[in-house]
Amino acid sequence: MSSNRYPWLQKEKPQPEQQAPLLLPTKEIPGSYGIPFITPIKDRLDYYYFKGHDKFFQSKIDQYSSTVFRTNMIPGPFMASDPRVIAVLDAKSFPILFDTSKVEKKDVFTGTYMPSTKLTGGHRVCSYLDPSEPSHTKIKQFLFNLLKSRKDYFLPSFRSDYAARIFSSVESQVASNGQANFNDLNNDIAFDFLGKAYFGKSPSDVGASGLQKKVTIWLLLQLAPLASNVLTKLHVPKLVEDFLLHTFALPSFIAKPGYKSMYDYFNTAGSAALDLAEKVGLSRDEACHNLIFATSFNTYGGLRVLFPGLLARLAQSGRELHGRLATEVRQAVASHGENGQVTLGALEQMELAKSVVYEVLRIDPPVEFQYAHAKKDFLLQSHDAQFQVRKGEMLFGYQPFATRDTRVFGANAGEFVPDRFVGPDGAKLLRYVWWSNGPETEEPTVNDKQCAGKNFVVLVARLFVAEFFLSYDSFTAEISGSLVGSQVNITSLTKAKAKAGNFY
Ligand code: HEM
């Protein structure tokens, strides 16, 4: 880690790497991996079925009185050859996962198992590459160049290809059925929007409508080991589901015909993008598989979780927050918009909307897990102690615990506080928002593993809030859990009455 990369850690204790800070006691990392094969399966069943995610980690924190401990992580046998990890669950120890001078992030994108490269045309795509691998630099640079070349299309495309379509579908479903399944609509519409935003052509524009269903199967094959309570809803016993989803990889040939259609679409619609790839020295074929992954897994997979999560928090916050957001959005559009529409300038004025987006990304990071291997021996610090980590050991962070750390975010760290990031004091906390696998105050580079689409994600999330409250004064929704994140059924929408000024 360069000496000023994480100044908030260093301000407190500017210590040389291996030297013990004066106040922190050095301790053995508590916890054990138990009996091989048996304990990993017990841990897996606890995690998925008997305790649940949060209780699984909280019970170990309580048992060891430590936010750093040894445990097995899912999915375990036979999916993962080695389930043993060192968990880092507080805001002090978690950033070790971003420090590429101490950790390696080769093949750890999905954790202790890696889906077959048959699902990605035989390539290890960018998300699985460590920055030390030369192709990582080329592919990440290619993705940066693509996003830059398309940046002027994001806003108009979001408005017409996402917001207008989804809002009218929600309205008509609420009118005819009394409710609208937001997740289903989002899953259908978001993929088309991405095609337009990234390439100027959606799958339906090139006769490939319905491609998102093939993408969904391809995603499920990769993510099944992380899923639970899917088949149990169909009355399949828990142990049978556990065996089917978590013990061996589902055969990749299931996705083969769908992947061929995906490849054809990206190869055709993404032709201008592939020209950019050749300029950084990538073959069109490798670039196309990376384009598929970055669009369909990184972006589409992320938006399938992020947008329902954002809407769920907004629904739960109620009318008072809706009113404040509607007022802010309409005032900003009146003063900085164009023809009554959102512009980037108007978006910049929306302090509360910005804060709401950061707060959602903090409290419900769409990707909850991060993994890495220690590149060398080093001392790992939590708030209370320091621990010796040995080269080769696997580190694991459960982000919702690290970003709800009361020692950083105060007693209300576990609550959704819409204004948390408003004003100069709020801005200081952004360095602890880590959804992108790095601090929100930093930009991703080819030398790190921070999300290449960080700015795109924040932009579309803000646009979501702005477009929503430009159109609606308020709404209600029923929220439940889904396979990943929240399931949102919108039950009512109140259309915007006032354009600007006071909402009430
Ligand atoms: C809500 C949406 C998104 C979320 C939550 C998200 C989250 C993440 C996270 C947590 C990582 C680090 C994973 C790890 O190594 O442990 C990551 C990496 C990555 N993301 Fe995103 N991402 C999103 C959208 C995007 C978009 C729009 C792109 C578009 C290009 C993108 C491209 C990538 C790439 C290429 C990497 C690997 C970076 C590297 O190898 O250096 N992601 N993302």
Automatic annotation (TrEMBL):
<dbReference type="InterPro" id="IPR001128">
    <property type="entry name" value="Cyt_P450"/>
</dbReference>
<dbReference type="GO" id="GO:0005506">
    <property type="term" value="F:iron ion binding"/>
</dbReference>
<dbReference type="Pfam" id="PF00067">
    <property type="entry name" value="p450"/>
</dbReference>
<dbReference type="GO" id="GO:0016829">
    <property type="term" value="F:lyase activity"/>
</dbReference>
<keyword id="KW-0408">Iron</keyword>
<dbReference type="GO" id="GO:0019752">
    <property type="term" value="P:carboxylic acid metabolic process"/>
</dbReference>
<keyword id="KW-0479">Metal-binding</keyword>
<comment type="similarity">
    <text>Belongs to the cytochrome P450 family.</text>
</comment>
<feature type="region of interest" description="Disordered">
    <location>
        <begin position="1"/>
        <end position="20"/>
    </location>
</feature>
<comment type="pathway">
    <text>Lipid metabolism; oxylipin biosynthesis.</text>
</comment>
<keyword id="KW-0456">Lyase</keyword>
<dbReference type="InterPro" id="IPR036396">
    <property type="entry name" value="Cyt_P450_sf"/>
</dbReference>
<dbReference type="GO" id="GO:0016705">
    <property type="term" value="F:oxidoreductase activity, acting on paired donors, with incorporation or reduction of molecular oxygen"/>
</dbReference>
<dbReference type="GO" id="GO:0020037">
    <property type="term" value="F:heme binding"/>
</dbReference>
<dbReference type="GO" id="GO:0016125">
    <property type="term" value="P:sterol metabolic process"/>
</dbReference>
<dbReference type="GO" id="GO:0004497">
    <property type="term" value="F:monooxygenase activity"/>
</dbReference>
<protein>
    <recommendedName>
        <fullName>Allene oxide synthase</fullName>
    </recommendedName>
</protein>
<keyword id="KW-0349">Heme</keyword>
